[in-house]
Amino acid sequence: xxxDLKRRRMLAASAAALATxxxxxxxxxxxxxxxxxxxxxxxxxxxxxxTRAIADHLQQVLGQPVLVENRPGAGGLIGNxxxxxxxxxxxxxLVTIQTTLVQGQVLYKxxxxxxxxxxxxxxxxxxxxxxxxxxxxxxxxxxxxxxxYAKTNRTSMGTYAAGSFPHMIAGQLNKLYxxxxxxxxxxxxxxxxxxxxxxxxxGAIGSxxxxxxxxxxxxxxxxxxxxxxRSPKLPEVPEVPTFIEQxxxxxxxxxxxxIGLFGPAKLPREIVExxxxxxxxxxxxxxxxxxxxxxxxxxRPTTPEEFLRLYRTDGPQWIAITRELGxxxx
Length: 330
Known about the structure:
Mean pLDDT: 87
Number of helices: 12
Strand order of the largest sheet: 2-1-3-10-4
CATH superfamily of the largest domain: Bordetella uptake gene, domain 1
Order of helices and strands: HEHEHEHHEEHEHEHEHEEHHH
Radius of gyration: 23 Å
Largest sheet: 5 strands, mixed
Oligomer: single chain
Shape: globular
């Protein structure tokens, strides 16, 4: 081997060692400046509350400011895309709903990012039960009775977003039972539940926290909840039965949504593991326990591996049902 070749190999090895050392030092020093957490929806909803609670815990533990930025627009795509294109240095994170990354693969002809390759999946956060409720004035006391009502009456159903779980429920009912339910999309739950209470629309699906004040006033009646487990947060006795218990066994009625914490793709593993641990730790904080109680959420933050397993298991079902119903947003 020539002396020149030996010298070049030695220089290359030294450069690689220096790069490794620089990375190790950088990882140990993280974070050395403020961190941003992007929420692609307006303040006030569950996604925003999660973002702020996790940011607060990270800030307390890491000793650096963790700034929440609400970047709503285009159904969450704008905020998501800003994180997909951010540097993978541990200073930009995203908290977003499942619809924007899973159903979005079908809802839009082309997303500005690839959900599987442009993000680092860190932790899934429970979305809780999403009760189905009707105006108390409507002569309906079960989901079966609602479907029968919709077969012979003009019926509108509120959703909190186009392409969301309630939008899919409305589409599936129309397909399976010959109803012609119109899905009415609201920007936020507050106006939606006001319209249900006033009888302007005949049903809606949203959070326990959103519907509960109207249930307590007696203006709204909850008649069903999704998944396989009843909600302990609803005051009816006995507790409100699930769709499945009422005979609606199509897969869409059992699906559970989630909210997720993400970073850009290629985020260093050390940072992923640390943020995951801190998020799981935050799940035991008083602030997040209050959110769980308010929204009737039983699930706790997951590890990255558990999050990806959830996506691999439920994601294909969400995508298949969305495609089957032909729901698109562009």
